[in-house]
Amino acid sequence: MVLAFTIPNQNPVLGPAQGNKQEISVYDPNLGNHRSLVATPEDCDKFVNDRNDALEKDNKRTLKTWLYSTLAGLGIGGAAGAIKAKKDAKTVNALIDTFNAELKNGKKYFDLKIPNKYSFEIKFLYEQAKNSFNKLGIKDILKGAGIGGVAGAVAAFTIGLLASIKNSSKSTDQVTQEFIAQHK
To answer: CB 128: neighbour CB atoms within 10 A?
Structure first.
């Protein structure tokens, strides 16, 4: 299923000036469509300029929301990933110490009882030439921090995007509503 929607053209459209009056079509966010109003050419120009300023303000706020939420997610996710990776590395290294001691005592690699939860990581740490396991180090913890950081940044970017969409035209809508109220 594809979810599709169209974004309405919210730009005002100026009609020809007829003496002291000019028709302007503005997008009314409350109605969801354009409505035509009559105002002085000066009021129409002021509205267009005020709306453009509000649009620029909305765009800056949207960009800041995306940026700050993504950076926060990167930091929080990276910290959480590093903490989890450090905890897992401590557990895996304790198992490796046990397995290396068993290998030194003559036990074979295939006879070791590697827990399923850690079997994937531990299998890649075994060096057959040395008949021992290598320990996890800071590089592995940093890798976990990187993975957590990316996941956190993606999640925060998505949440920031949704919040930005919701508030993307706050100032623009306010300027438009004030203009509509003045020229009904």
So the answer is: 7
Find the DSSP H helices in 1-40. Answer: none
List pLDDT tens digits, range 107-128: 887 778 878 777 777 778 888 8
Region label for 131, one of left (φ > 0), alpha (ψ between -120 and 50) or beta (otherwise) = left
H-helix segments, the chain = 41-104, 119-125, 138-167, 170-182
Q: Is the Cβ–Cβ distance between 15 and 28 less than 8 Å? A: no
**DSSP alpha helices (H): ranges in 105-137?**
119-125
Task: Return the structure tokens found at 172.
Answer: 């623009």
Nearest to 142 by CA among 75, 81, 76, 70: 81
C-alpha 97/C-alpha 104 separation (Å) is 11
